[in-house]
Write a structure and sequence with these properties.
The chain is an alpha+beta fold and 78 residues long. It contains two helices and two strands.
Length: 78
């Protein structure tokens, strides 16, 4: 005789909404939400970094990573 197995369903939570200040992502290990900058925000900041050095020699990847780091720090401080 087969044993009856009781199945339970779990609710899938809705994806966190993106805010105007960045993208909200929930950490799997922490209950605290992490706000990440959007691609458009990073792009704009990287361009500002480029303009600060008057369009002189530089590395676009370095500008991008610096912009992302600056924005993450700003958003974490909120």
């Amino acid at each position: 005789m087969a044993k009856e197995v009781k199945r339970t369903t779990t609710k899938k939570s809705a994806a966190p909404a993106a805010s105007s200040t960045g993208t909200v992502r929930k950490s799997r290990t922490k209950a605290q939400a992490v706000v990440l900058p959007t691609e458009d925000q990073i792009r704009a900041r990287a361009y500002e970094i480029y303009l600060r050095r008057n369009g002189g020699q530089g590395d676009p990847l370095s500008d991008w990573t610096q912009a992302e780091m600056e924005l993450r720090e700003e958003l974490a401080g909120r």
